[in-house]
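Predict the holo structure. Ligand: adenosine-3',5'-cyclic-monophosphate.
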Amino acid sequence: MAGSTDATSMLGSVPIFSGLDEKRRKSVASEGKELSYKAGDVIVGEGAMGVGFYLMLEGRAEVRKGSRVLARLERGQFFGEMSLIDEQPRSADVIAATPTKCWVLSSWAFNGFVKSNPEVALVMLKEVVKRLRAAQSSPTS
Ligand code: CMP
């Protein structure tokens, strides 16, 4: 697990958190933890109930539905927000394509954080809309 100083500066370099001031970044950084995965590990499994929000720190991962690759994720990108927002099961698998490190926030901490930092919700929403448009236009394979 990263010390909160490492996590605070790391969050400053990723788009969804970079607009926050140092104090807010520090506060949310202390609530998350780092988890490591091997290539091939299922980080979140389709159909499971969501308990965390994930931010990619290192490596690459694939969002998959069966054999279809919906998206590829790398450092700075997030996933796992959908289940936390609508309280439905995970919509897809997210599988580590290489050794991967994620910063993970519990659903409880995520909800509190989003409620008190609505500007982050807007940045997240923009990214979700971008993903929706990409999914509508050209499936990745
Ligand atoms: P969630 O449903 O909680 O768990 C699987 C995650 O994969 C989902 O949240 C999104 O973060 C991500 N995801 C699902 N579908 C897509 C997509 N079409 N493009 C990018 N990411 C996706």
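Strands lie at 33-37, 42-44, 52-58, 60-65, 68-74, 78-79, 93-96, 100-106. The longest helix spans residues 118-137.
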